[in-house]
Amino acid sequence: MNETAKKLPFSYFFIFLTITTALEVLAFFLGMKPGTEEISGLIIFNSILGLSAILGFFSLMFGIVTSLRNKKISTAIFVVATVPLVYSLVFKLMMGIYR
Questions:
Q1: Which end of the chain has the smaller Cβ count within 10 Å, N or C?
Q2: What's this model's pTM, rounded to 2 decimal places?
């Protein structure tokens, strides 16, 4: 039996990464908006950011598995570089806004 493995679509990685980035930005906006008490803002920020981190790890693993399943090692390196870069850019941007 010669079965060919189906290639996984790489667009799901970008969908997960977009959702993760949107949750991270939402955590910053909801947690640090003016008029929010300090402790409630911290709770909201930490809970949404924790969910964003879990989804970020999931998108990282999904991107690596998709790349290796499709036998494209160069895209696996791209995935490993993209996810932390997106996180660090959003953190830097949001911390610059709220200073």
A1: N
A2: 0.71
Residues near 32 by beta carbon (within 8 Å), at least 6 away in sequence: 41, 45, 98
pLDDT of residue 12: 81
Task: Report the sign of the C-alpha dihedral through residues 91, 95, 97, 98, in that order.
Answer: positive
Q: Give the whole-angstrom CA distance, residue 92 versus residue 94.
A: 6
d(CA 78, CA 71): 14
**Cα(48)–Cα(4) distance, rounded to whole angstroms?**
40
Does 17 or 8 have the greater pLDDT score? Answer: 17
Residue 72's nearest CA partner among 11, 7, 6 is 7
**Alpha carbons 60 and 82: distance in angstroms, whole number:** 9
> Which residue from 89, 69, 93 is spatially nearest to 17, judged by alpha carbons?
89
Provide the pLDDT for residue 16.
84
All residues at 6 or more sequence positions from 26 whose CB lies less than 8 Å from its CB, including other chains: 48
